[in-house]
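Teaching note: in complex prediction, the entire set of molecules is handled at once rather than each chain in isolation. The prompt given to students was simply: 'Predict the structure of this complex.' The entities are:
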Amino acid sequence: MMKQFFSKHFLADKDIQLLIGKQLRLGVITSSLVVLIGGIIYLSRHGHELPSYKEFTGVREGLNNLPGIWQGVLDNKGMNIIQLGVVLLIATPIIRIAFSVVAFLIEKDYLYVVITLIVLGVIMFSMLGGLAG
Amino acid sequence: MTILSFTLILLCGAFLAGLLGSLTGLGGGVVIIPLLTLVFHVDIRYAIGTALVASIATSSGSASAYVKEGITNIRLGMFLEIATTTGAVVGAVIAVYLPTNVVAIIFGCVLIFSALMSFRKKMEYATDVDSSKLARQLRLNSAYPVNGDIVNYKVHHVPGGYFMMMFAGVMSGLLGIGSGALKVLAMDNIMRIPFKVSTTTSNFMIGVTAAASAVVYLQRGYISPGLCMPVVLGVLAGAFGGSKLLVRANVKWLRIVFSVVITFLALQMIYNGCTGKL
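The expected output is the structure of the full assembly:
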């Protein structure tokens, strides 16, 4: 009886693990492809210019917020396409958290639904809390 | 140097960093910051933003493989991510108030610590003795496969591990690194879980921890696409290559060489931090 319960539980966990593994891989592959495409466009247009990272000025306007990045992507700007890939990469572990909420819900593990929601909440606060200063 | 040659050299450097990082288990992110600041004279704030993104890439890439094998303790990772993400947010906030040379000195110290950690004797403290009520309530105790068998283990000292993880999170948010060495220390020595489980679970957590501070740094303008492009692609390709190359036989001398290089870079970061050059 105990053993059966354990193996069933283990199986459900295994499915979640497979799903999480797939999602992470997909996220990394997609974002690196987007970065690569953006990089080729950026280098073909600006490759001959000089890099300037010695002095910190922050990235140019439009590369530090989602609407700005997306607008540049629509205008086919290489820098913005790279940044879109970077945003997708940052989103990959965050989407993993959101997935886990659903997975723990299916497993009826409500304690971990709450724990996972707390982690998601901390990230949301970090994103929207105006911490950029 | 034009942007094209700068990008190509950086791509090679990042590839090497990813390759060595994955072969030695030290992670590629640790050398990205000294590579960018000392070799390419990039401002440390851009370097931190770039390294954060690189650590998300390598962590997610390798976690996808480990998670499938069922070694990662997902519940433990999830629970401790509360500590690491809150720590990371705190780290990202205090980073604004710290002068960059102080950040460079702290970074150098953590780097030396990480290099030393890679030499410690791998003592297995894991037991199946159930001592923590909290671990039971949080369902942290688990099992993992060893040569086809399922081995049970128990988690100990949950509050101690939690606070150590919070510290690891602060360092990650402040310095833009995964701080895997601190995470493994918390799980091996304090929580007493099997070595294989702690390394994979730590790796699993790095992506989320880094993402928590990356969203702040992105808005702050630290994350520059021109740097992220070669570094992310290079580190990922290097780490992937390393995982294919990994012949577990003789990485000992490689680890020694890499650790010496890292210690040298760390000392230079500390020196430049003290003289105010970074």
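Point out the following to students. The CA atoms of residues 56 and 131 of chain B lie 34 Å apart. The mean pLDDT of chain B is 89.
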